[in-house]
Design brief:
612 residues, alpha/beta, seven-stranded antiparallel sheet, globular, binds 6-O-phosphono-alpha-D-glucopyranose
Length: 612
């Protein structure tokens, strides 16, 4: 949610900033801007994408070795040139980029208005930079002191970078609730919302913690203190991101690349954790809390979006394997409804980005009630990963496409490993069944690879349904979350209205929507409730709906009923989500491409939602 990048060092700043913005564009893409400090402070910004900003910059003098840049996902004020970041202070001596929300911007603004300040934009960010300048002038303090005083008056979330024409060798950086990383190079510093703009220049990074201010000075060491003025020693970490993971590598879109990466990413999420020969599942990151998980009377899963769907699969897995009751909660609902949380509850927080504001707040709430918090995150070093007591990274690699694909299957893989580990230690599963499942789990990457061969068949189906305005996705048991996730993928990237439903619930409402125009995607791989799914398909057929069925290879009954079938390899019922999701991702992708949609950056969405 908004990407920020800044540079100070011996090189030309602008090319580094623009490349960084492209890497961060998944975070928001309604406007972009850059400010470069040379003898003068030059600021350019425009509505639209980073490529629109680049057009604006053509022919301009952009020389300078210090600068800040921003790609925006609007919160306050519509996306237009004026509301785009960076924002100047009143005198135009300072400029700021900001990710987050200043909640008390209205009273701060009123106060500044009464003191003669005027505002160009509708943003909360402009209020903050005016406030910083007001403090700098009236209290006669340095930029870093002014930032510190201002942040003590601010309620809300922020990651900011501020530059000052009169302190040309300094960047002031601060964070609370929105991520920030400082890259330390040889006589140069990079600042960004995540490590992706930094990795090609340096692997040495410092992740700022909440309420920390970093003072970055040319030819000096990084200095960090809190807004309460406590000095901190920077904790330097080494990045392990592979640069090729940030490129499309010949694929038309990141989303397609990420769909095709799944045989590898699922394998990576099991690497070192699943040992089929010795029959051991071991998740090093949560080993210390294993006993708490075994003893838990209840597991609560909190997440948002696609991660919430993975949580639903987790519910089925933990209940079936580890015989522990599970509640799956939207983090945004959980955090505001005064939930009943016991000290022996285990809360599993799932998040690809590790930055989702609602999930983070849900964690803090559960923590304050004494529950044990286990994280499942993809982004190493992210806020959620750091806020949990323990956790396991999904190791899916950077996911750039805004619609989540490989992160989902990696999350489900980890939940499967966790449930198996707990079930085995608890003794709620027989040894033979346990071995059967881990053997099959080990075979999943190859089966996912095989499943990807359905692409041509999916393309034919996509051509027939690309102009639909609605779609229904049905599934039962483990396939119910798969139906929800399939529908979410379609609506996110193709803007076709789609709903995922438990197949049996269809008759309580959605059946009214079915006519000869309506595509109904049914995931019909179930063994346990196969006959019931067949009945649900018949109910749709009786109303002339068009059935697209995902079936197990060799299926005859559904094949005879469905209008279109997509065959997937047979597997354990509890592992089907890892397979059946693949054709649904491809279907959404193909339809979106045929409709001319921007697949990697769908309208109004952002990959990392750091506002509530
Ligand atoms: C956004 C993204 C979704 C994602 C959700 C939760 O809405 O567009 O793809 O599922 O946030 O994000 P998280 O990073 O917590 O998994």
């Amino acid at each position: 949610m908004c990407g920020i990048v800044a540079y100070i060092g011996p090189r030309e700043a602008c090319p580094i900033l623009l490349k960084g913005l492209h890497r961060l564009e998944y975070r928001g893409y309604d406007s972009a801007g850059v400010a470069i400090l040379n003898s003068d402070l030059k600021l350019y910004k425009s509505k639209g994408k980073v490529s629109d900003l680049e057009k604006l910059l053509e022919g301009k003098d952009l020389s300078g070795s210090v600068g800040i840049a921003h790609t925006r996902w609007a919160t306050h004020g519509e996306p237009n040139d004026i509301n785009a970041h960076p924002h100047f202070s009143y005198s135009k001596n300072l400029a700021i980029i900001h990710n987050g929300i200043i909640e008390n911007y209205a009273p701060l603004k009123s106060e500044l208005l009464t003191r003669g300040y005027a505002f160009e934009s509708e943003t909360d960010t402009e209020v903050l930079i005016h406030l910083i300048e007001d403090i700098q002038i009236n209290e006669k303090v340095t930029l870093s002191e002014a930032v510190q005083i201002a942040l003590n008056q601010v309620v809300g979330a922020y990651a900011i970078v501020v530059i000052d024409k009169n302190e040309p060798d300094t960047l002031i950086v601060a964070r609370k609730g929105s991520p920030l990383v400082v890259g330390i190079g040889d006589g140069e510093f990079f600042v960004a919302s995540d490590a992706t703009p930094i990795v090609e220049y340096t692997r040495e990074v410092v992740y700022l913690n909440d309420e920390e201010i970093a003072v970055i000075k040319r030819n000096d060491e990084l200095k960090i203190r809190t807004i309460a003025n406590i000095e901190k020693t920077p904790y330097v970490q080494t990045l392990e991101i592979n640069l090729s993971a940030l490129e499309k590598e010949g694929y038309e879109h990141f989303m397609l690349k990420e769909i095709y990466e799944q045989p590898r990413s699922i394998r990576d999420s099991m690497r070192g954790r699943l040992n089929v020969e010795s029959g051991v599942v071991s998740l090093g990151g949560i080993i210390e809390y294993q006993q708490k998980m075994i003893a838990a009377k209840r597991i609560i899963i909190v997440a948002c979006g696609t991660s919430w769907h993975a949580g639903l699969v987790g519910e089925y897995l933990f209940e079936e394997l580890a015989r522990v009751p599970v509640e799956v909660e939207y983090a945004s609902e959980f955090r505001y409804r005064d939930p009943v949380i016991y000290e022996d509850d285990v809360v599993i927080a799932i998040s690809q980005s590790g930055e989702t504001a609602d999930t983070l707040a849900a964690i803090e709430l559960a923590k304050s009630k004494g529950a044990t918090i286990i994280g499942i995150c993809n982004v190493v070093g992210s806020s959620i990963a750091r806020a949990t007591h323990a956790g396991s990274y999904t190791h899916a690699g950077p996911e750039i496409g805004v619609a989540s694909t490989k992160a989902f299957t990696a999350q489900v893989t980890l939940l499967t490993l966790m449930a198996l580990m707990i079930a085995d230690r608890k003794g709620t599963i027989s040894k033979s069944r346990y071995h059967q499942i881990i053997n099959e789990l080990d075979a999943i990457p190859a089966k996912v690879k095989k499943t990807l061969e359905v692409s041509d068949k999916v393309m034919e189906i996509a051509r027939l349904f690309k102009n639909s305005s609605n779609a229904l996705y049905l599934g039962r048991g483990y396939n119910f979350p798969v139906a929800m996730e399939g529908a979410l993928k379609l609506k996110e990237i193709s803007y076709i209205h789609a709903e995922g439903y438990p197949a049996a619930e269809m008759k309580h409402g959605p059946i009214a929507l079915i006519d000869e125009e309506m595509p109904v995607v049914v995931i019909a791989t179930n063994k346990g409730t196969y006959e019931k799914v067949v009945s649900n398909i018949q109910e749709v057929k009786a109303r002339k709906g068009k059935i697209i069925a995902i079936v197990t290879e060799g299926d005859q009954t559904v094949k005879a009923l469905a209008d279109h079938i997509i065959e997937v390899p047979e597997t354990e019922e509890m592992l089907v989500p890892l397979i059946a999701t693949i054709p649904l991702q491809l279907l959404a992708y193909q339809i979106a491409v045929m409709r001319g949609c921007n697949v990697d950056q769908p309208r109004n969405l952002a990959k990392s939602v750091t506002v509530e």
